[in-house]
From TrEMBL:
PANTHER family per UniProt: INNER MEMBRANE PROTEIN, UPF0126 INNER MEMBRANE PROTEIN YADS-RELATED
Transmembrane segments: 31-51, 63-82, 88-108, 115-136, 148-163, 172-193
Protein name, entry field: Trimeric intracellular cation channel family protein
Family per similarity comment: Belongs to the UPF0126 family.
Primary localization: membrane
Residue intervals of the Glycine transporter domain: 4-78, 91-164
Domain of life: Bacteria
Topology in membrane: Multi-pass membrane protein
Length: 198
């Protein structure tokens, strides 16, 4: 139940991120809702389609859609009254990335996928929505720039797999992977760490 609640918090954070991107691009209300939804559930939707999981998670349980609408509306209202809490959003985005990446990895594991596919599906779940958001907002996607974003997800999922293979209980390995993604992402932001460009 705790994991489910955290997952919905991740949906809310990513929906807020999509809402802010849509407002920055001066989209109308429908455009805002579309971008919020694509950011929040885009990665998980593509994952489910690639893994042939039916129904797609938000069709089976529509609560994420309600969370998206509520988050988008609250974000719109917040921006009209108060400044955007940038630092809080960055922290929440790191947590959302970690939750989505690790939950995506667990879904792929449950489907019997090999380690490489688990890493790919987990990473896709974590960053796919943001990729769609940036494309629709006519920006170069974050994961194609130098930011350590998808890299943090890959590292955390890989650590989770290795710890499990080394004999650590799955629950503990999951927690370590989750925390490592958050820490790597926040350190990258704080210290301005970037991947080399060519």
């Amino acid at each position: 139940m705790l994991f489910y609640i955290l997952d919905l918090i991740g949906v809310a954070v990513f929906a807020a991120s999509g809402t802010l991107a849509a407002m920055a691009s001066h989209l109308d209300l429908l455009g805002i809702m579309v971008l919020a939804a694509m950011t929040a559930i885009g990665g998980g939707t593509v994952r489910d389609l690639l893994l042939n999981r039916h129904p797609v998670f938000w069709i089976e349980d529509p609560k994420p859609l309600l969370v998206i609408v509520a988050s988008a509306v609250l974000t719109i209202v917040w921006v009209q009254v108060l400044p955007v809490p940038t630092d809080a959003l960055l922290i929440a985005d790191a947590l959302g990335l970690a939750l989505f990446a690790m939950s995506g990895a667990k879904v792929a594991e449950a489907q019997g996928c090999r380690a490489l596919i688990v890493i790919l599906m987990g990473t896709l779940t974590g960053v796919g929505g943001g990729l769609v958001r940036d494309i629709l907002a006519a920006k170069v996607p974050l994961i194609l720039r130098q930011d350590i974003y998808a890299t943090a997800a890959i590292a955390g999922i890989l650590l989770y797999i290795l710890l499990k293979k080394a004999g650590m209980p799955p629950r503990w390995a999951f927690g370590v992977g989750l925390v490592s993604i958050v820490v790597v992402r926040l350190l990258a932001i704080q210290l301005g760490l970037r991947l080399p460009s060519f």
